[in-house]
């Protein structure tokens, strides 16, 4: 039996740096033996079908292949369609009533507990808010990510030490759920 997955690549194709063309990413995923490969946008979102049940091994294999092909390392998270759907369903904010740019999900490579963010005075950033989920952080930023002071605070290296994290806006979250639906 095979599963649909999404690969979330971190920090590629930003301002012309660390370029990974999506056509080449699709080819690379096919060369790794994956099927039903597709990409979404230019920001490092790919979906594929694999018989493997090991998200960590799939991510590590893709990271090695990307570094070999493009000459630089790229952190990758691989998540099943079922996981992505669960994250979307668990959103603590009324995402369906908001613009896609107002809600973001940051996916982490491992579980994160609230103690990591205890030093952050969340009330100081209102009306912006964040909540933790299953290897995910939900951010409500009513003026968008580009103007979010809370996003800057959450992105501080001290809060993210030892984590691989990559964020997607709500439109992308929903699209990846659709693309990985079995």
TrEMBL record:
InterPro entries: DUF1697. Signal peptide: none annotated. This is DUF1697 domain-containing protein. It comes from Streptomyces atroolivaceus.
